[in-house]
Amino acid sequence: MVSPKGKAVWVAFHDHIEQLCRRGQPLASIKGLAAKVPEHALRLAGVLTLLDNLQATTISTEQIEAGIELAQFYTNEALRLFDVTGDASLDRAEGLLEWLHAYVEKAARTTRQVYLAEIYQKGPSRIRDKASALATLALLEKHGWVKRVADRAEIDGTRRSHVWEVR
User: Fold this and answer.
1) What is the pLDDT of residues 34-48, one digit of tens each?
2) How many CB atoms lie within 10 A of CB 148?
3) Are residues 52 and 124 in the same domain?
4) Last residue within a domain, chosen from 37, 60, 85
5) Which of 30, 34, 62, 95 minimizes the number of CB atoms within 10 Å of its CB?
6) Which of these, 4, 11, 1, 5, lies nearest to 56 by C-alpha position?
7) Which of 38, 55, 85 is the endpoint of a domain?
8) pTM above 0.85, yes or no
């Protein structure tokens, strides 16, 4: 059992971690691990409680805070290790691909085509310039997720250059 104040501290920590796991937030790159961090903090607090007193039946606020501190340390280490080995261009490409799939469904066009300006004007915030959009599209094209349309294509009643078909 967790003390009432300890539970409030844990719930606030849980909600905070949940916010940090959202797209574009600091823990998004390790979301799979980070989503479990509040539970790990609670388990650590339980272990610390038993280390203090084998007969304890309640986890105190202090032990919850200590469990959170330990869990945050390990989360920061995981984030540090991921950032060393992670590839930001792949992360941007994954974000763009998710956006493209959602966007072409929502656009309700007869084709699954998008044009460059549409991507950097309406797309993910990390791809808000032509150079970033082109580099990210090139990576997606290399892996077969998009294909450049050879000729100018008509989209929304206007002839567009720099058009890709989303696969």
Assistant:
1) 999 999 999 999 999
2) 11
3) no
4) 85
5) 62
6) 1
7) 85
8) no
